[in-house]
Design a protein that fits this description.
The complex is a heterodimer of chains A (331) and B (286). Chain A is an alpha+beta fold. Chain A has helices at residues 7-20, 94-108, 114-121, 170-175, 202-208, 214-221, 227-231, 276-295, 305-309, 316-326; strands at 2-6, 22-29, 32-37, 63-72, 75-80, 87-92, 123-128, 154-159, 162-167, 182-184, 238-245, 248-255. In chain A, strand 2 and strand 3 (32-37) form a beta hairpin. In chain A, helix 5 packs across helix 8 (276-295) and helix 6 crosses helix 8 (276-295). The longest helix of chain A is centred in the last third of the chain and has 20 residues, at 276-295. The model of chain A has no long low-confidence stretch (mean pLDDT 95). With 286 residues, chain B is of the alpha/beta class. In chain B, 31% of the residues lie in helices and 13% in strands. In chain B, strand 5 and strand 6 form a beta hairpin. The longest helix of chain B has 16 residues, at 244-259. Chain B starts with a helix and ends in a 27-residue tail after the last helix. The model of chain B has no long low-confidence stretch (mean pLDDT 94). The chains are: A alpha+beta (331), B alpha/beta (286). Chain A binds chain B through residues 29-32, 52-53, 62-63, 134-136, 217, 220-221, 223-227, 229-231, 239, 241, 243, 252, 254-257, 260-262, 276, 307-309, 311-313, 315, 317-318, and chain B through 29-31, 34, 36-39, 57, 61-62, 65, 112-113, 175, 177-181, 183-185, 197, 202, 205-209, 236-237, 239-241.
Chain lengths: 331, 286
Amino acid sequence: MSKFISKKDLNSWLNKVREKRRLIAPTKVEDLVLFKEISKVEDIVSDYVNTDLSPKEFFFPPTEVLFSIAKKDGGVELTPARVEKETVIFGMRPCDAKGIIALDKPFLEEPTDPLYREHRDKTILVGVACLKACPECFCSSMGGGPDDPAGFDIMLTEVKDGYLVQVLTDKGKALMPDSMLSESKEAKPKAAEVAKVPAEGVNVRLRQNFDDPYWGRLADRCIHCNMCSYVCPTCYCFDIRDYPNKGKSDRVRSWESCQSAGFTKIAGGHDPRANKGIRMRQRFAHKLLYFPEQFGVSHCIGCGRCVKSCPVNIDIREIISDVQKLGAKGE
Amino acid sequence: MSETEQIRAKAKELLDSKKVDCVIGYERATDGKNARPMFVYNAKDTDRLIFDQTCRHNLVRYLLNRKDKVTGIVVKPCDSRAINLLINEHQIARDKVVIIGVVCPGLVKTDWNKTGDKLRDACQICQQRTPVVYDVLIGEPKKVEPPADAYPDVTGMEGKSVEEKRAFWEKEFSRCIRCYACRQACPGCYCSECFVDRLDPLWVGIRIAPAENEMWNTMRAFHLGGRCIGCNACEMVCPVNIPLSLLNRKLEKEVMTLFKFQAGLDPEAPQPLAAFLKDEKLGVAE
């Protein structure tokens, strides 16, 4: 027996959720499907496989004020930014929840980022299992899976007329109590078939081939925009700047990317990653070698967004295969 | 011989004879449907080269990374105008490029893992089917009758009120994530330090927010006024589908009206916004 909610009941639940909270869900914007704040539950789309941009922006926004700085009584007063409203993100895919788990590592390990912490504490994640996969998806090779509930508070699986429900945390239980749910004998549908990528042991191969000319050749084609980092659900680099604001100053952080020229430029003008090949290697070695070594989880979760969006088809799946083929010759 | 076969043969000849050490062309992307840029250093790899209506990238941008080496390059007519632009602006030397020009059938609309048979909007109104500069031409030169209105898209925008235009662009720019793919794909955007990357003094803030997004996109368009060669690479790479060609083509139309000039047609002609002519009047209103 599983818990079940009908589509009609789910919609009225979402309407209720909306009353006091910010409801974020996938919706159509021009030709794109994006996570946006929902004002009408009918605007939520369900016939998408994955959104064009990731939901990381609700924890690590493209731009946000960290704190404001004001002069007070001959000293300086800092006022940290607060997250006012509780947020519910509905319709997130299992790969994106894995992305949030990865983001938690750098932001929540000591020293914790207090604003990220608050975004996380005040957000409830309602996931929907993937019954279909995109051709660029490869989550099951990166430690996830199309029906993996990890990271969600509530996980739904679509069946006829409604959804099978798994309430996974206390936060989830408070939002969707058992009393709302009925019992169903419906069998859990088969999750999507996801293409495989030979990621096993790629970290070792990356280290062995650190100085291979492969990176320089790959960078020939790369145009070094920041798109891969910005569509990525786990890239977390940022820049910081102070902005004057009505007699005070706001300290603002905005997304940045290791792919942009000058990202690692230091005082005196030296740039340890001045060439394109080195920047390109940094991106893939961080995803597949440094981050897993530091935090124990993959920094690529196989959502396929960078694969799909890259203007020149720099394809991480192909890179993983290529690096495996380079073998141990670098050692 | 098909275009693809002719390109492969030419590339092989250039590499075998050591006339060039690299040919930049197109190969099939990993979705099996789209094209992607390919750098061929070895004659045996030339059989991966392709040409068809999915070959959307303007490869001329890559010549800026190879200024001191002789490079073979496959160009469509719009791309060929970028070569003239860069020669005109002293960025590349004509004798460092061997140009394999291809008569263009127009590009089809493509998306990741999807190709159609419908021509792209820009290609439907394109009047340049034969490259303006080449060393070898692939295909038969083609003349196209100019349409009554070469700028139907721009005319449509001009019909809107100021308020409507503002609302339109505010909505479009609100999606911008400032990934700079438009700039990076553009053959005309090659400043060694772009105004948005300048941190001291800070010209445009780092925020990914409406005011900065608008500043970024409009400033970039102005920098391309009289220089944009209309390849539409910027719009094609935009991950959030901002119709950048509307801005670029509006400026192209203005420059055409005021100066009877289109960028990239002549490598020698002075650019209207970068040169004063002896008899030139200083004010538009004079």
